[in-house]
Amino acid sequence: MKLFSFPVIKISKITQFIVLSCICLVLVVSCGTRQTPQANLSPGTPNAGDGRIAVGTTAKPRTLDPADAYELASLGLVYNMSDRLYTYEPGSTEIKPQLATALPKVSADGLTYTIPLRTGVVFHDDTPFNAKAMEFSIQRFIQNGGKPSFLLKDVVDSVKATSENELTVKLKKPFAAFPSLLAFSGTCPVSPKAYEIGSGKFQPNKFIGTGPYKLAKFGADSLQLDVFDKYWGEKPVNKGVNVQIFSSAANLFNTFRTGAVDVAYQSLEPTQIKSLDESAKKGDWQAISAAGSAVKFVALNRNQKPLDKAEVRQAIAAMIDRSLFNTRVLLGQGEALYSMIPTTFNVYQPLFKDKYGDANVDKAKQLLTAAGFSKANPAKVQIWHTSSAPTSSSVAQTLKAYADQKMEGMLQFEISPVESATFYKEISKGSYPAAVLDWYPDFLDPDNYVQPFLDCPKGSDAKGCEEGGSQTQGSFYYSDAMNKLIAQQRKEQNPEGRKKIFAEIQEKAATDVPYIPLWQNKDYVFAQKGVNGVQLDPTQNLIYKSIKK
């Protein structure tokens, strides 16, 4: 997730997520008739009489400590066992109060946030929740130095309990998206009696928060979540959840087909998703899909020839055929994207489509000609991707094949795979002319799809970005005007005012083309017949408490 990212993006998070999102297009899906659930599958064996839900996944958590959790597998579990100050309605990117009782009161200078808190809330160990406990949890998140600590460390100047049920947070700089950041799962409160503040002092194998479930068991390949009987809010409609972690997508796929788990989520391959989706249409089970928050894109390095010419970058944007990617790479399981900001935000504007269209080969040739390229003098571009990401490989291969077929030799791509550690080390050094990447947001606000990619506090028109988000992402884009627009939207508290600024940002990004958006992901969950209430949170979390059978 910045992942999820204000300041400079943390590439390491992306690396972890790519493992969860990789696709194998040649996987052979075995076929068979649905069988009776096996009684010896534990704890994933559904039992209609006990009211518990069996969830199957391949996402293995590294830790359950919210101050160090920075992968989907860990954050999804923390999400279901915790509360945050703010949360999201399913299917919406708008935040609403959870442990807070209202949206923050913001000072005129945009630096001080005053947050009223709920009363009558207790942690899983019976410790009372109050402003002091929330102050402790945020301080711990920052000071313990976990993987996501920069999310608050780079933003928060101080946090203080100003009364029993009032928290006051002062920021280093204005940041209008701050309430959305407080909906990030890792910023949840934890019991001050069960945790301590100190660099590296984490509790990876336990969780004690205020949420609707408490951790009853944490094994190598399974977890048991029991309903917290003192939960302050609406209780889960089930009696608890058993999470079974499978060693491969194939095992998850086959186990779900036998009926041995109630719900299957993360991470099935596209061919498996297609197979299960087709069976769902026949009534064998249920398929639930939702627009995801992750995006796929190509970064173009303005410091490398021939991408130093805007016309070449624009030509590549014009020739991109997103429908081809969706058909060949995603098997129809994605949504074409024409801005780095996903369609789930009301500020989204499809300016890449407006300016370049899709598969606009004639426009691409015109732009290349204007830049001085021809059949005799082709523009040659190396495209790099991680060797561990089949989708990125397929994007590069498809792009090359399409250019070879349509561009009459004027634009030629060379594909260069490299192992992940080297890829993420070298991209920020400017080693790659072009690169295929994924982005998983840290928090749901358009800022998180803009600032980590386009902001550059240190750079120049001549040298490009020397330090900042665009340098880390490999585009080395620098624009003083863009820096000012990003700063403006971060200060602007009025939603309509921010929307106008984001429109200007997207317009400039589509003209300068430091990145080419390809698609946003679509999330799929499969549930057995008779299982109801299966929903996804906008941050890709499966919501446990609403599932019943």
Automatic annotation (TrEMBL):
UniProt-listed SUPFAM superfamilies: Periplasmic binding protein-like II (SSF53850)
Tagged with keyword Transport: yes
Pfam families per record: SBP_bac_5
A GO CC term attached to the entry: cell envelope
Keyword terms, alphabetized: Signal, Transport
InterPro entries, per the entry: Peptide/Ni-bd, SBP_5, SBP_5_dom
Domain Solute-binding protein family: 94-459
GO molecular function annotations of the record: peptide transmembrane transporter activity
Compartment(s) of residence: Cell envelope
A Gene Ontology biological process term: peptide transport
Record flagged with keyword Transport: yes
Family named by the database record: Belongs to the bacterial solute-binding protein 5 family.
Protein name: ABC transporter substrate-binding protein
Naturally occurring in which organism (per UniProt): Cyanomargarita calcarea GSE-NOS-MK-12-04C
Lineage: Bacteria, Bacillati, Cyanobacteriota, Cyanophyceae, Nostocales
